[in-house]
Amino acid sequence: MRIVLVGPPGAGKGTQAALLAERLGIPHISTGDLFRANVSQGTDLGKQVDAILREGGLVPDEITVAMAADRMAQPDAEDGFLLDGFPRNIAQAKSLDALLAESGQRLDAVLDLEVPEDEVVRRIAGRRTCRKDSSHTFHVQNKPPREPDVCDICGGELYQREDDREETVRKRLAVYHEETEPIIGYYSEQGLVSTISALAPVPEVTRRALAVLPERAA
């Protein structure tokens, strides 16, 4: 099964992608992971990405598509994959269609995780991260620390990352609406989109996603 997962920042795509991929027995392919893997392995594409990111630039579509194509060609993706963060725009969506068509394949489903904008801001702006260990995260409402601004695990200071601030989140949302959201319309014309409310506990959102897949599978 070949699936694209789309949704705004804060919709829980990473969490759902990992859970769905495990349940379906297909690899979770994240553009962020692809960038990091290619950079750490020192591939030609990785060197280009590293140089671009160091200068604060955006990775060009052709490099992103090339990395995704290479990953989708790996043996573990022969029977399907779940794409997270790719395609990011209409141009990438068309490139993906062309790549799949070359091997006689097509997407089976596009899962659109829907979350109201104010909820996205609440989720992200409420996050607090430990300065000692960034894997320790809390939320001022959903998962507050026992002591304000102190990590329950190691006692480190909790702080709000710059990219978690409300003004930054709203800028990220504006970019999503302008660049990525149009792919939902693009794939809707192909009859591939299922919109799933992500306003529920993680297991329930996963259940909702799995429930629509049999109807969409090729």
TrEMBL record:
Q: What class of enzyme is it?
A: transferase
Name the residues that bind ATP: 10-15, 127, 137-138, 200
- Give the EC number(s) under which this enzyme is classified: 2.7.4.3
Keywords assigned: ATP-binding, Cytoplasm, Kinase, Nucleotide biosynthesis, Nucleotide-binding, Transferase
- The segment(s) forming the Adenylate kinase active site lid domain are 127-163
Protein's cellular compartments: Cytoplasm
UniProt region (NMP), positions on chain: 30-59
Please give the function described in this protein's UniProt entry.
Catalyzes the reversible transfer of the terminal phosphate group between ATP and AMP. Plays an important role in cellular energy homeostasis and in adenine nucleotide metabolism.
Q: How does it assemble?
A: Monomer.
Q: Present the record's domain note.
A: Consists of three domains, a large central CORE domain and two small peripheral domains, NMPbind and LID, which undergo movements during catalysis. The LID domain closes over the site of phosphoryl transfer upon ATP binding. Assembling and dissambling the active center during each catalytic cycle provides an effective means to prevent ATP hydrolysis.
What is this protein identified as? Adenylate kinase
